[in-house]
Amino acid sequence: MTSSTRRFSPWARMNRAQRENLNGHLLTAPTLLVILAIVIVPFLAVIVFAFADLRLVDIPYMNLGSIEWTLDNITGAMESKAFWGALGTTIAYATLTTLGAIVCGLVVALAIRRPFRGRGVVRALLLVPYVLPVIAAATIWRTMLNPQYGLINAFGLEFLGWDRPIGFLNTSTYEVFGVSIPLTLLTVVAFEVWKTTPLTFLFITARLQSIPGDIEEAAALDGASSRKILTQIVGPQLRAVVLLLILLRFIWSFQSFNDIYLLTGGAGGTQVMAVKVYTELITRADIGSAASYGLLMSVILGVLLVFYVLLSRRKETL
Fold it and tell me: How far is residue 155's CA from residue 264's CA, in Å, rounded to a whole number?
């Protein structure tokens, strides 16, 4: 390249700030392309399919000119009892798993906060459910809860006086002391709480370790009881991380699919929104209906995401 060519090239006419800005765009371009390919394009496809009369058998012959646009998928989902039933089940599942995981994680974190012999081993064992592959965890639970040879039913029949085995993974309602409970839903909630409590434990433990110990020592010297130290000193320090966990845990549970599908396949009153989308797509082969359910689910999650962003900005301004 000659000196005259370099003089009039776009790169030569840029100042240092412009060149650094261009370098930044070039460095982030691969990431943006990946996000575009695996997030943006599929989401746009979901939006298109949600307003199209389309089934799996139509895919080989599909083009934009042949698509029949319709609002029937959205209106049909909104008017369907199955949609509202799945939405109610999803909200109940997400709420119970969120509260259960956070309460259990908080209790465990506070219980092993003080040093004791073997605390490292206990912490390592607490992380086993979280690092265990979900397929392995679900298989263990399905085996333990099996009505024919499961450990839980064998123990109940032998020592608790059960008159018959209990189908924990296929019983919508079960009477306990005259009160009907959603047995299978509570079972998958217990599985999710057991699986995700270690994560909340890690979050809360990290926050506890950042609390200065001299504050609690000073309060104890002033005569404050352990309960007051916990509620008036430790509690306020944990408020922010607990609120964050509530929101994130609810969003994660709201879109949960693997755990429920592997345990029950949506049976026993556990058909949440994610399982409903899968059923519409695979069982009924209705792409439009599945996309409409997925789009409505995304809208709800979008509202939660906006709430999270607003909450984060509020924390920054405080």
Answer: 22
Q: How far is CA 123 from CA 137, 207, 241, in A?
A: 19, 16, 20
Beta strands in the chain (DSSP E): 174-176, 179-181
In DSSP terms, 180 is beta-bridged to: 175
Name the residue among 98, 74, 72, 77 with its Cα closest to residue 87: 77
Tokens 């499961």 belong to 150
C-beta separation of 121 from 192 below 8 A:
no
Report d(CA 113, CA 123) in Å as an integer. Answer: 10
Please say whether the beta carbons of 145 and 168 come within 8 A.
Answer: yes
3-state secondary structure of 180: strand
The per-residue pLDDT for 74 is 87
- Number of Cα atoms under 13 Å in the Cβ half of residue 205: 20
Which phi and psi angles does 201 have, rounded to 5°?
-60, -40
- State which H helix or E strand residue 214 sits in: helix 213-221
Number of H helices, E strands in the chain: 17, 2
Pick the range with the lowest mean pLDDT from 57-66, 208-217, 218-227, 262-271: 57-66
When pLDDT is cut at 50, 70 and 90, the band that residue 161 belongs to is: confident
Contact between 125 and 272 (Cβ < 8 Å): no
